[in-house]
Amino acid sequence: MSISDSEFEQEIRSTLESGVTNLDAETRSRLAAMRNRALEHKPLWSRWLTIEHWIPLTAFATIAVLAVSLVFFQPHQGSPEQIALQDSDIALEVLFSTDDHDDVGDPDFYVWLDMAMAEDEEPKNAG
Mean pLDDT, to the nearest integer, of 41-67? Predict the structure, then answer.
């Protein structure tokens, strides 16, 4: 603050304080009561911003998100790892074959793989 700001502030303060001292007792008590009521009144949102409300709500929300993610987001059953685990015979046949592995880039390889997997699934579905 510059000196002029400080002087201005002091002048305003003294004017307001002299105005308060010139009030009668009833007006001062009413103003003090209104000031106290205004200080005690808090809006609804400020009552919920206390730490004792947010800790349980945050814990509940975290547990709910974890529960939903565990229930609904199961591992994808069509991933290569799952297919390899389910159809280990086909995977081992592909891995240990003496044929050239350049077939993996060939679209016919995938057609053959789908047919081989479908043949393995037919006995399971029939019974």
Answer: 82
21-32 confidence digits (pLDDT tens): 778 888 888 888
**Any idea where the domains of the chain sit in the sequence?**
1-41, 45-74, 80-126
Alpha carbons 77 and 80: distance in angstroms, whole number:
9
Contact 14, 22 (CB under 8 A): no
What single string gives the DSSP state of each residue in 37-101? HHHH---HHHHTTSHHHHHHHHHHHHHHHHHHHHHH-PPPTTSHHHHHHHTHHHHHHHHH-SS-G
**CA 116/CA 50 separation, integer angstroms:** 63
What is the spatial distance between Cα 48 and Cα 69, in angstroms, rounded to a whole number?
28
